[in-house]
Amino acid sequence: MALFDWSDKYSVGVFRMDDHHKQIFDIVNKLHATMKEGKAKEVIGPLMKELIDYTVFHFHEE
User: CA-based Rg of the chain, rounded to a whole angstrom?
Assistant: First the structure.
């Protein structure tokens, strides 16, 4: 089960930005899932880097 589920109520009405937001949701949900599985120690570094890098990219584009 995802921590955050995308809903149209989060839409900003700009397809490209909504896709970015969905990607951020996906990364956070991956992190949450691995934490629940007890595997966070193995993947937290790469997932946090992915989240940070994508967030920087997103705000640059926004």
Answer: 13
* Residue whose token pair is 């909504």: 18
Q: Which residues of the chain have pLDDT under 50?
A: none
Sign of CA dihedral 47, 22, 35, 56: positive
- What is the residue extent of each domain of the chain? 14-61
pTM of the entire predicted model: 0.85
Residue whose token pair is 């490209």: 16
Q: How many CB atoms lie within 10 A of CB 45?
A: 10
